[in-house]
């Protein structure tokens, strides 16, 4: 058993193992997770540095089995390998759109939700048409939905990936590059991505206050993003020291435990209502 970063995520792989009998068949359990309503989204608030206001939320997937939450780090890789990520990813998009509609009706204001898109989901044939259909049936304003993709979508076929990003952008969706700096794509590609936002990976943020070189990378990335006309958000911001440094470096937004942990939908609504009253 392991307790992940105070995120109240407890993972019991051996318990899953025991449940499934002699052979660990996580894949078949995962296959049924969608239809058994075992998946849920938690929402982590994102904050504007210039006025401290709420920007929106990142939707983070959790798998609830017998009351315990399983971290996506423990099943997304398997979902990717098995191809289950397409069905799971579609569910995530549908659930995020449903939640956007519910919240907007509740508070009478637009709410932006960012959704993680895995490389295999992005490359799957029906991805664009599923999104078009979803936006049409839910009537969600496309600019309320942000797609977080990683540089790894470029690995297979950069030209088709860039073409798809253009079509997604034309739909009115917001696009962000996630985990920026951890992939292998060249900086030349970045200038060709029709994206809105760059997310600085938390591995750079973690020690930026203590290790001068890490700070230099973060600062340079903020400058790079801005010179390309992008909004820059830093993730994994845990302390006031980090917040103040990012603010001094003119980073636009932050996300991390300092502002808020990922919240179940009901708590996220409270957070939303609380931030409206400011
Ligand atoms: P990510 O997209 O980089 O998401 C950020 C991760 O950092 C989340 O972990 C979040 O809970 C955690 N985090 C947020 N603030 C802090 C902080 O201040 N300190 C630290 N140490 N961690 C922080 P989580 O929720 O366990 O998700 C892990 C990864 O799983 C995500 O990384 C993402 O790559 C993937 N994932 C999550 N939901 C989905 C999904 O719906 N679809 C896909 N394809 N992948 C997902
Ligand atoms: Ca993300
Ligand atoms: Ca990330
Ligand atoms: Ca990450």
TrEMBL record:
Domain EAL stretches: 23-276
Protein name, UniProt field: EAL domain-containing protein
